[in-house]
Design brief:
Chains A, B: GO terms for molecular function: DNA-binding transcription factor activity. Chains A, B: InterPro entries: HTH-type_Bedaq_tolerance (IPR052526), HTH_MarR-typ (IPR000835), WH-like_DNA-bd_sf (IPR036388), WH_DNA-bd_sf (IPR036390). Two copies of one chain form a homodimer. The first copy, chain A, is mostly helical. The first copy, chain A, is built from six helices and two strands, in the order ααααββαα. Helices cover 63% and strands 7% of the residues of chain A. At the A-B interface, helix 1, helix 5 and helix 6 of A face helix 1, helix 5 and helix 6 of B. The structure holds a DNA duplex.
Chain lengths: 146, 146
Amino acid sequence: MSAVLPAAPAHPFAAELRGATLRLARRLRLEKADDELSDGQTSVLAYLERRGAQSPAALSAFEHVSPPSMNRTLNALQEAGYVDRTPSSDDRRMVSVSLTDAGRAVVQETRRRRDAWLEQRLDELSADERHALTEAATIIRKLLEA
Amino acid sequence: MSAVLPAAPAHPFAAELRGATLRLARRLRLEKADDELSDGQTSVLAYLERRGAQSPAALSAFEHVSPPSMNRTLNALQEAGYVDRTPSSDDRRMVSVSLTDAGRAVVQETRRRRDAWLEQRLDELSADERHALTEAATIIRKLLEA
DNA sequence: TATTGTTATACTCTATAACTATA
DNA sequence: TATAGTTATAGAGTATAACAATA
């Protein structure tokens, strides 16, 4: 009885969740510490802060971007003083990209601004509504890991 | 006692909500009906479907993009057969941008794919968790309107 | 003269293909 | 010969400035 592509949506509210998520994300992305940074550059810095030093190949895979495009992004970030490139001593073909102190600072400031914007909106909600969003954040994280 | 910029976050879970939202949105944006369409083009089509015909100026404002950039986006969408441009008969400087049937179809197919992806993830959750996300979607919409 | 939209031009971001260095 | 990274080159997307048409 199961179908790979059901004719009717199993969870009609998925459309509501999709719309709300895309619009909130769109609004959040407007808040950043350095307006000169592109979305791609901002995202790479955030990923490095979250996961630690990475190879250019790992970054291009995560960002769904070609290796040459990531290379250009890394050139810009290095030029701006936000990342360092360190060749591996084991295998000299490999490079490790890591955040500088300035890079870490810009990531943290961007997060601070986004959170500040969000907290102002949360202030206008009831305690129950805030509680519901807290739970939702946890569930969404679980959903993404599945 | 109130401060415009509080020293400590009033709602520490804002960071969780921010992270979950940005990552879910990132994943959702990968699903689209026409891989040739850029994110900006996809977003313009969705906006036209949601709000009806709009002027180029209104679209560039909503997309936070310059009028010439929007003009180029509209050229591409018109070339692809997804939008029409109709001059106003009242004020001949003004243009109305509207979806063609093909444009409407590609918006709906993109939404269908995103919802299908999301519904598969929702299937792996409990009924309580799905209920929590339903409520969250409503609250987020309210939050964005504030 | 002001406004709406478009064209001119230049710069950034992206991609594919080719190249370098190392293994 | 294969792999990680980079460079070469070209195609979109974006911006500011200038222009055209209309009011």
